[in-house]
Amino acid sequence: AEYMGNLQLRDLQGHIVEFSRDQHGSRFIQQKLERATVAEKQLVFNEIVSCAYVLMTDVFGNYVIQKFLEFGTDEQKVALASNVSGNVLSLALQMYGCRVIQKALEAIPHKYQKLKISMVRELDGFVLKCVKDQNGNHVVQKCIECVEPMDLQFLVDSFKGNVYSLSTHPYGCRVIQRILEHCLPEQTMCILAELHDQTEQLVQDQYGNYVIQHVMEHGRLEEKTRINNLMRGRVLQMSQHKFASNVIEKCIVFSSRAERAELIDEILNQGEAPNSALCMMMRDQFANYVVQKMIDVSEPVQRKILMHKIRPHINILRKYTYGKHIINKLEKFFMRNSADLVPIGPMGGTTFSSPMKPFDYNTTTGGGGVYGGFERPHDYANCP
C-alpha cells in the first residue's frame, strides 16, 4: 500500500476497475471518494459504470460501488442503480452483491422512489427463496425498511400461510419482525393472526420465541393480552423452558400493570415451600431470570410479598448455582432501597429495613435490570 502514498485518483485514469478489484487499490479509491471533487468522481464513474455488475460481485470491488452510492451525485447513484436492473435477484443471493443492493436501497434519493420499487419488484415470485437465503434475507429486510409499505403488498402476500415456517427459520424470523415493525396494520393483521394461532409452539422454538418477544415488546395492547392469556396458568412451565422463558420475561416487563400483577401472583400463590413454584423457579437455570425480572418490575406492595417469600430460602439458594443469582439480586436491591422498605405486616411482620450482609460465594456478578444481578447469557448461535 505504500506505493500509493502520493497517488491521486487522476493518476489511476484508465486503471480504476483494475485497482477497484485489488485489496489495497479498493481501499485507496474508497478513501479518496469521500473527499473527491466533482471532476474526480466523474473520472471514476466513467470507468466503473460499464463494469458495475462485475464490481458489485467482487470481493473488493463491491466496496467501491457502495462508496460511490454513498458519496456520488444523485445522477451517478441512479445510473449505478439502473445498472442493477434485471439482476436484482442474482445480486441479492450473492455474498457481495447483496451488500450493494442494500446500499442502493438506502442511498437512492426519495424522488427516485419508482426506481426502488422497480428493483424490489424483481424479487416478486422469489421472496421466500430470498428470505431463507443467508444473503437474500438481508436484502428483503432492507426492502421492508426503505420502501413504502403500500408498495410491498406482494411481499406480505407471499408470507400468507407461511408465517409459522418463516418464524421458526433462522433468517425468516428476522424478516417477520421487520414486517411487524414497518408495514401497515392492515398488512400485519394476517401475519399476526397466523402467529397467534401458533403462539404456544412458537414460544418454545429457538427462533420463533424471538418473534413472539417482538410482539410482546412492540405490539398493540390487545396483541399482548392474547399472548398473556395463553401464558396464564403455565407461567412456571414456560419459565423453565430455555426459549419460552425469554417470552415470559417480556410478558413480565411489557404487560399492563394489571396483567403483570396477575402473572406474578400466579407464581406467588402456586404451591407451598419448599416445592412452591417460586422456589422451583429460583433454583432453575432459566426461570431464575424470570424471578429477577419480577423483582425489577413488580409494584411495591407485590414486591414486598415477593421478598418475604424469598428471604427464608436464602441459605438453600446459596447451594444452587442459579439460586446465587437471586441472592445477588436481593443483596443489591436491599443495599439500594433499604430506606424505603417497611415491615410486611400481616404476612409475618418481617422487616427489611437494613441491608443484607454480603454473602460469601465465588461467582461473578454483573449488571441485570434495574437493581443489578445476573444477566441471562446470550445464545449467539440462535439469536437472530
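[next item in queue]
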Amino acid sequence: MHGLRCPWLVLRQTRRLCFCRSYSQEADPLRVCVIGSGPAGFYTAHQLVKRNSSVRVDILEQLPIPFGLVRFGVAPDHPEVKNCINQFTTLAQSQQCRFIGNVSLGTDVRLAQLKPFYHAVVMAYGAEDDRVLGIPGEDLPGVLSARAFVGWYNGLPDHTDLNPDLSGDVAVVLGQGNVALDVARMLLTPIDILKATDICDHALQALSESKIRHVQLVGRRGPLQVAFTIKELREMTRLPDCRPDLSPEDFDNIRSLVPGMPRPRKRLTELMIKTADEKRPTREGERGWGLSFLRSPLEIVSSNSDGKATAVRLEINRLEGDWRSAKAVGTGETEEMRCSLVLRSIGYKTLPLDKDVPFDPRLGIIPNEGGRVVDDNKERIPGLYCSGWVKTGPVGVIMTTMDNAFQTAELILKDFNTGELPKPTETDVLSMLSELPGISPTSFADWEKIDREEQRLGEERGKPREKVVSVDRMMEIIRET
C-alpha cells in the first residue's frame, strides 16, 4: 500500500531535532515549498509529483504531525473520509516529497527566509479561526464555536482543554451546515458507537456523562437554503434512540416547488419533508433533535447567577426573492429558545500568517488569480501561490479542495516550464532551519513513531487509535523511540 520510504537520517542533540536528506542531484529540478499539511497541501504536492518526475516538494507544518483537517476536522464516525491519508502517506514516503513538521510560518520562520530555497512557495494552511456573530452574550460561559468543539473531540492540541459544559439538557447549534450536523450527531450518538471510533478519550468520557437530551439547529433562512447535504441529514435521521422533531408546517409553502428543483436539492428536501411527516412513537429515554428555520440570533442571555448561557433570543425572519438566492429579512418579532449550551457554526475564517503574504481581511483569503498570488495592485508575485481554503474561502468538501489544489499545481508547472519562476539560490532549507533558535523540526518518520504509539494505545482500548493530544508528549515519543 505504501511507496518507497524516504532515506531520513535523524540526529538528536539534546532536545533539538536535526535531520538531513539528500535529494537527487538532477540539474535544476523544480523545488516547491507547501505551507500546510492538510488536504490542500498534500493534494497540491501530489499533483506536482504526478506531473513532474523530478520535482522536489517540502511540506511545512506548524504541528509535529501531518494531515491537518483530515485528522482534526473529520468526524470520528466518518473513517472512510480519512482514507486519503493512505495516499498522503505514500506521497510523504516517496523520494520526491518531504514532510517537515513543528515549524510555523510567521513565528519560527518567515517567507523571506524560505524563498531562496525554492522556485515556488504555496500557501495551503487552511482556516484556523471561526466567524463570530457579533451579538451580545457571545462570550458567555456555555457559548463555544463548533470549530473548537470539533477540535476538542478530535484531539487538536489547542482545544483539548475546552471542557464544554454538558450538564444541561438542551444544546442549540447556530447554523445548518455539515459541521453543525456533525457536532449535533456527536452530542446524540450512543456512547457504545463512539467507543469504536478514534474519538479522543477525554471527549468520550465527557460525552458518556453528558446530560444533553435535545439538540436544536437554527438557521436564518428556510428549508430550501440549508447548507448541509443529504448524507449528513440521513445519518441524523438514523441515529439510534434519537427522535427527529421537524414541523410539517415548515414545509407547507415549498412542497409544490420540489418537483422542479435540481436533483441534489430535490432529494435533500424530500428527505426533510418525509422526516417531518413521519409519525414516530415516543420512546422513553430517547434523545431528539430538530431544525428551526427563519430565525436570526440577536442575543445570548443568562438568567443564572453564575453567568452561564441559558437561552438564545431570536428574531423571526421572512424570505425575500427566489428560493435560490432568498434573503432573510427580520420581522421585528422575537422569541427565546432555552438552552444550556450554544455552539456557533457559521463558518471558518482564514488568518494572515506572514507580513510578506498579501491578505484580504474582508474576504478572508489570500488575493489570487486561480492560485497565483497577487499584490494590492493585482500584479502577480512571482513564485508565490495559494491552494485550498486560503485561496477560495472555507467552502466545499475534501474533493472540492482536491480540485482547486490540482489547479494551483498545474499553474506552478506551467510557470516553471515557461521560465517565469525565480531560481533558488540556496540548496536545502534544513540547513537554514537547523541554525534557527528554538526550532525542533520533525520528519515523517517521526510521525510514524507517534502513529505506532497511537495504534498501540487504541488496541488496548478496542478502537482504531487513541490520539496523542499534547505536543510535548508527541516530542517525548519521538525522543524515546
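[queue empty]
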